[in-house]
Amino acid sequence: MVIKMELCHFISDHQAKEVVRSMNQLRKLNALCDVELVVDFERFPAHRVLLASCSDYFRAMFTNTMCESARTSVPIKNVSPCVMRIILDYVYAESITINADNVQELLPAASLLQLHSIQQACCEFLERQLDSSNCLGIKAFADTHNCTELSQSAEKFICQNFVEVIKHEEFLNLSKEDLEGLIKRENIAIDGSKVSIFEVCDTYAIRSIVIMLEQSKLESRKTLPRLSLKEYMVIVGGFGLNQQPIDVVEQFESKNNEWSLLPPLPTRRRYVSATQLGGQIYVIGGYDNANRLSSVSVLDCRVMQWKTVANMNVRRGLAGVVSYRDKIYVAGGFDGSSRLSSMEVYDPNLDKWEMMPQMTIGREGSSLVVCADMIYCIGGYDGMTILRSVNRFDPREGRWITVTPLSVGRSGAGVAVVDDMIYVCGGFDGSQHLSGVECYNPRMDMWSSVANMHNARCYSSTAALEKKLYCAAGYDGATLLNSAERFDPLSNKWSPVAAMSTPRCDAGICVYQRY
Predict the structure, then answer these.
(1) Number of C-beta neighbours around residue 314 at 10 A
(2) C-alpha dist (Å) from residue 455 to 37, 210, 262, 400, 502
(3) Which residue spans within 237-319 are E strands per DSSP?
């Protein structure tokens, strides 16, 4: 048989689907599965490779140095077993059933696990359900989970059907602020014309509506439990066991004494700084193993999604960062060639950084905190000396001064404020890694010693949470740490708390609040 020397390119439209179909059969038989997802004590066998291929959340979990990457059983928080079953059926079968009973659980879970196609399908379902009785609730739900297109569709529906919307219970349940925002819109349709409510109602009538709604809700408010804000401590990025920058983000809740994962950083970073402003976590500068960075990534804690904002004017690693009066201040750091004395401030309303007056000395590895309306920059390294010096910046006068120095030089110390007292934990003094802690009283301009930590820690992550001081991770001179401990200023004692999943140093840390 003679065969001509020709090429034949064959492309199958069904091969990929057949592979996934076969993996789904194996999953149902619990065959060749290499991980179990544990949700409220219910176990779901799965294949890491398929989960990682569908979700950046699982990709980060299984491909980084996190302890979950080696575990055969992985707990998943904030997702119900019913919803996890729906999600896995979609991952394996590309089919999902969304209904009124599951959409309010499914959308937040899809957002958490970064399954954007499911999130989009939920939004499309809710958009089809819009009517005058639910449009206000759907808009509020969309805003909470940052579903911009759904929110815009709901708002358009509200404005076009305003006369019907005000007849339903959701309108009566509006807060005073939401009601005032609604009635001030310019494009509300009344009798077929788009007008402002102010064109058809006088100010007295509007004020009367607000008062009436507040009174109608007064009794029901007495019977409803109040939602309280919870504080969470978040640690981002850093330097991991593989001698590389990492993108792992972990969150600590003190009530349950447990850590959980948040969506990973878009870019792996060490020498990174972090702060919270307006319910969002800002991750600033750092080092990606090639360059010092000026970029800023922001995690919206309502929907747990990352975005980018304007870059700093200067590349900075190991800089100090703090939030103060709706702005973010960054000072010092290392740009790859010199230690910086410059400071810049970010205005989120303008999405713009502006240079500020310089410190008296360039320094990296220092810490920035706010106490009594003053910004303090503490310790660090100037390229030759581990520093004891402390600079204080007055934002009103725009001026730096020097205050009483630390008792010992410290670079890479953790710093936080509890009850208007500044605590400086650990660090490196040029010869040894420290466990000692100093406390500064700004009213007396005086330092004093408090109880030592259980572990020496340099480039650890320190924050104040619920009027306690927490210090986590870091380097003790021999080992990268994942341990954490808590200091009670009233008893002057440190006690251990739950360890993180990922040992690290050079990480960013902040505290944020949510319901």
Answers:
(1) 18
(2) 33, 57, 26, 34, 17
(3) 249-253, 258-262, 273-277, 280-284, 296-300, 305-309
Assigned CATH topology for domain 230-514:
Neuraminidase (2.120.10)
Domain residue extents for the chain = 15-129, 135-218, 230-514
- Under DSSP, is residue 316 helix (H, G, I), strand (E, B) or coil? coil
**SS3 label, residue 463:** strand
Task: List residues bridging with 354 in a β-sheet.
Answer: 345
How much helix, strand and coil, in percent to the nearest 5, is found in the chain?
A: 25, 35, 40
Read off the pTM: 0.65
Question: Exposed, middle or buried, 83 (CB in 10 Å: 0-12/13-18/19+)?
Answer: buried
Taking a C-beta distance cutoff of 8 angstroms, is the pair 108, 300 a contact?
no
* Tokens read off for 439: 């406390």
Other beta carbons within 10 angstroms of residue 436's beta carbon come to: 19
Does residue 210 surpass a pLDDT of 60?
Answer: no
For the stretch 217-256, pLDDT in tens is 444 444 444 445 788 999 999 999 888 999 999 999 998 9
Quick check: 443 and 371 in contact, CB under 8 A?
A: no
Residue 327, helix vs strand vs coil: strand
Cα-based distances in Å from 440 to 315, 407, 444: 30, 11, 8
CA dist 418 and 493 (Å) reads 14
Residues in the chain: 515
Q: Which fold has domain 15-129?
A: Potassium Channel Kv1.1; Chain A (3.30.710)
DSSP letter (8 states) at residue 225 = P
Element (H, E) at 27: helix 15-28
Class of domain 135-218: mainly alpha
Per-residue pLDDT reduced to its tens digit, 404-419: 999 999 999 999 999 9
- Indicate the range of 192-201, 335-344, 377-386, 487-496 predicted with least confidence: 192-201
DSSP symbols for 349-401: TTTEEEEEPPPSS--BS-EEEEETTEEEEE--B-SS-B---EEEEETTTTEEE
